Automatic annotation (TrEMBL), chains A, B:
Taxonomic classification: Bacteria, Bacillati, Actinomycetota, Actinomycetes, Kineosporiales
Keyword annotations from UniProtKB, A to Z: DNA-binding, Repressor, Transcription, Transcription regulation
GO molecular function: DNA binding
Name recorded for this polypeptide: LacI family DNA-binding transcriptional regulator
Domain HTH lacI-type: 9-65
Lineage: superkingdom: Bacteria
UniProt cross-references to Gene3D superfamilies, sorted A to Z: 3.40.50.2300, lambda repressor-like DNA-binding domains (1.10.260.40)
Organism: Kineococcus endophyticus
InterPro entries documented for this protein: HTH_LacI, LacI/GalR-like_sensor, Lambda_DNA-bd_dom_sf, Peripla_BP_I
Listed PROSITE patterns: HTH_LACI_2
Length: 362, 362
DNA sequence: CTGAAAGCGCTTACAG
DNA sequence: CTGAAAGCGCTTACAG
């Protein structure tokens, strides 16, 4: 009891207090007491452990087990985006449930840092590895990431389709976005498509086009960027041009905000004169927007959860995994995108004459 | 050389390959070779280490040194916000520079999770601890956070002023925001103040008011929330009421976006008819907005960096810190908020008659 | 049913 | 200048 309070108790301290050996302490605290240790001694051990607030030294446990109960997460920039946090949240909750902790390295898109990140993490002897992308993209799994259970979140490697990868079902999301407008009665839809070099925009466009086509309608597409300003510019062009559409599907919520902004500046009301569908369900933008944005959510949290679950599963399945996982072909899994209905979609107003600019509807 | 490639090399492997003892390997690789080990043997050891890609097992090192080279970060929700990422980025870069890694636990504002978070992290024997708040607030340092170097980022404990705390200088930020408008020639300024219960809004308001007062002007204040929709509502009221101001200081960029939205709906141009200053320099909003928002940036990255540097410093200073830090009174440090000039502020238009709604200025 | 011993991989006195 | 030994805290065969 003269142990200074600042020093953490060891199993020896517990053994001394309970009057048993360290082995007994270990057995009991690891649930292998029954049949090995007398019940009263078990109770004494537990009591001593509780009194001393004993927690096994993880370095010692790791040294013995060659497991660190730690998962490495390398991300391209995910800690710097609002919805990236959701992915991390799903991941860390899944990890925590099984007693694992996440160690995060953010590379901010710098190639050099990425190589270092894997090296650092492997050096730390993480039990598994994850690469999480800020937004959907292709990703070439580097050599440094192999030899340990590994999964991809929000990205996939076309050259290594057997690597477990968890991505949003963007095509279905695009279909859902179009369906929202179709169900409200829109026929005349333009897609503010985002940047063409992003795979998400291509996939979403495929979905929107397919759904519209199935209903017998053509789709007009305008390539944009991903920012509010891109939405303003593109929407201004579309809304002042010929054949003004009654509905807009936007590449993401930021573009949708830009579209609303542009509409307002032109004296057009959303959703009265124009319906707008966003994408992402960005917490800072979609719900708080006026009008609140109807949008397609990205299942980032589930993606994070599923990716960690997979790594943990591989770890449990393959006892030798910590030293070099063998993976069999499993491939990419598509996680559905929930539809979030709010206030930016309404039936198209009967097209009479062009709405007069300058009569804001509220 | 028959070592399977999946097994990581140990110092024994290196010693065998170099033909020396493990001690020699340790000495050389830890920079204490000179004067102890013959130069040619040193070279042999380094070569062997490189060839085997030897990396010391961190569990073994930790067990011996009782240092994990790991810092625990508990956050209230920081991983779920865009600018929270900046804080984490600053923190992890500072940590990395000295060979430390960050382990992050996000509590999502759940009290219970917070207690668990500290417990988990302490159980992992982190060398130091940080609490990082998503936005400026007071924070009662819990018992579980003591006994190890500790710092607060983006928050402070009024009951424990000696705890190192790093926060933005919001008063100076508020002054700077007002100064921007004053310098452009505005006299008639309204503050869309955010929620009154937040300490940031109070501090910013003090700054704005002080700067205006020093110039001989009064300040009108409207309490709002923090979201786009709050900005829309408040700005609509202010802009349609008597004594329409020529300049608006907004509690944050989201409110500023709402203010611009409201102005546009009323047919008012920003910055032609109304100047708007934001706060936060939110990456998704400020620069991409149309017009790009002039705003006051939050120095989140520096805050994260400084907090980690402080913990690391305490760790280095106090050799017994890992087991129970003794801290002397240091208190809170204010980090300045940079001014970011973009396009949402202009000189006030000579007040003639009210600008006609419905003539968008571009 | 229980305790003594070995060993995970490292570093640091301590002998030679 | 170098190697053998001890020990960090744990768990798991292995004797008793």
């Amino acid at each position: 009891m003269t142990r200074p309070p600042s020093r953490k108790a060891t199993s020896q301290d517990v053994a001394d207090l309970a009057g048993v050996s360290r082995s007994a302490v270990s057995l009991v605290l690891n649930g292998r007491g029954d049949g090995n240790i007398a019940p009263d001694k078990q109770a004494a051990i537990r009591a001593a452990a509780a009194q001393l607030e004993y927690e096994p030294n993880p370095s010692a446990v790791s040294l013995r087990s060659s497991r660190t109960r730690t998962l490495g997460v390398v991300t391209d920039a995910i800690a710097s985006t609002a919805y990236g946090g959701d992915l991390l949240r799903g991941a860390s909750e899944a990890a925590e449930r099984s007693g694992h902790l996440l160690v995060l390295v953010d590379t901010h898109y710098e190639e050099q840092r990425e190589a270092d990140a894997y090296r650092t993490l492997r050096g730390r002897r993480v039990d598994g590895l994850l690469f999480a992308a800020m937004s959907l993209r292709e990703y070439a799994v580097p050599e440094a990431a192999t030899g340990v259970p590994f999964a991809l979140a929000n990205c996939y490697d076309p050259a290594a389709p057997q690597v477990p990868a968890f991505v949003a079902d963007e095509v279905a999301g695009g279909r859902a976005a179009a369906r929202l407008l179709l169900d409200a009665g829109h026929r005349d839809v333009v897609l503010l498509a985002g940047a063409r070099d992003a795979v998400a925009s291509t996939l979403r466009e495929d979905g929107v086009r397919a759904e519209l086509a199935a209903a017998g309608h053509a789709l007009r597409t305008v390539e944009t960027g991903w920012e509010i300003s891109d939405g303003v510019a593109a929407a201004t062009t579309v809304l002042t041009g010929p054949d003004r559409p009654t509905g807009l599907v936007c590449a993401n919520d930021r573009v949708a905000v830009g579209a609303v902004l542009a509409a307002n500046r032109l004296g057009l009301d959303v959703p009265g004169d124009l319906s707008v569908v966003g994408y992402d369900d960005d917490a800072a933008l979609a719900a708080p927007m006026v009008p609140a944005l109807t949008t397609i959510a990205l299942p980032h949290r589930q993606i994070g959860e599923a990716a960690v679950a997979r790594v943990l599963d591989d770890l449990a399945t393959d006892p030798s995994a910590a030293g070099g996982a063998r993976r069999t072909g499993h491939g990419t899994v598509l996680v559905p995108c929930p539809v979030v209905v709010r206030d930016s979609v309404a039936p198209p107003r009967r097209r009479a004459s062009r709405q007069r600019a300058g009569s804001p509807s509220r």
